[in-house]
Amino acid sequence: MALYDQIIDNHGEFLESLHHRFLDEERKSALQNFENLGFPTKKDEEYKYTNVKEITEKNYNFFPKESHNITREQLDQLHLGEENFDWIVFVNGKLHKELSKVSIENVEFLSINYALNDEKHKEVFDTYFNTIASKDTAFTNLNLAYCKYGFFLKVPKNVVIEKPIHVFYISQNQEENTFYNTRNLLIVEEGAKVEVIESHHNFDSTYVLTNSVTEIFTYPNAKADWHKLQNDNNTSYLIDSTFARQEKDSLTTVNTFTFGGKLVRNNLDFIHNGSNINSFMNGITIIGKDQLVDHHTAVHHNFPNCESYQNYKGIFDGNAHGVFNGKVFVDKLAQKTNAYQQNNNVLLSEGATIDTKPQLEIFADDVKCSHGCTVGQLNEDALFYLRARGISKKEAQALLLYAFANDAMQNIDIEPLKEKISKLLAEKLKVDLEF
Predict the structure, then answer these.
(1) pLDDT at site 84
(2) Which residues are in the SUF system FeS cluster assembly SufBD core domain (predicted)?
(3) What is the DSSP string of 308-330?
(4) What kind and span of H or E run contains 55?
């Protein structure tokens, strides 16, 4: 049975297993929308270069086994050496407090499953939940119909969370291919600050499909940073859709670092709802073999005097396939907009490919917008310069590639995360560097 048929057949049993009464009708409506849309094909413009047939033709278990035997040593290997961080650990969809470390105070933090069943949070969820996530795509509708795992975090006015929060989604001890629909909701009120790191890990040889939706609300003078560390194994699929709505004078950053996973699709939408907003999107992709990574970004400039910055770097080897489609929409009211978008790529083999398409739609006349993309190979003059100083060809190539990717992580102010990304870059590029 293909995934589409499983989704339709399992929904009744799934609803019976939950008690989110104020979401039942929304779930049914989302499933109907999904039925009408169906999974995207290469005939759909948004998936022209990304074929999800490999994902959708497999069978999956919708009810993962909760039992696990994750050890502290295994968890320690996933950490960034962050002694002063907080961390939240989900194993097979369930939040495990005994594996987590949460010291944050004066905030509302709950698993999404608990929050959806807590009557006192109904008003919050009526106000925020599923209000900015797209209603027009198959995967977001599918997530709403089946979401159960994930977290809800609300940071009150003027509260500054000093420690970054690392959220781990782990799948282990699953005998069948497993399907997770994770849902995250982050609300950062006026003057508040928070930094989140998100990572997914499959410990089994069976396939894991994660369909994740995150909604971020950043209020005036607030700052929200969300870092996605995607370094899963080759039996993992990830469809990630993140939506961020910003109010005036706010700053929101989403950094996406992709090194692993068989097929990864990142959908990222920023919505400006005020003036003097800053939005930052950075990405580094290094993949090989037959991996596919697709970044689709969109920034909606709806008010004047706002800035957005997109910088995505890609390095592709083997038969890897990269896709980048970045969109910037500037409304006629959004005068004095400053929007920058750049996608640079290096192909290391004849089998590697990249499809890149930066787009601008500008309806205002007093703006500063730029976009560009490059696809090429390493600079031969720079290689010669390094080799003339006694550096081997392989080492010289790795050093140039490291420098090429490095500027996309310059705005990371979490030192352990920056070191981890640097080490992953070095490992992928097979270069010995000191940190």
Answers:
(1) 84
(2) 175-404
(3) EEEEEEEEE-TT-EEEEEEEEEE
(4) helix 53-56
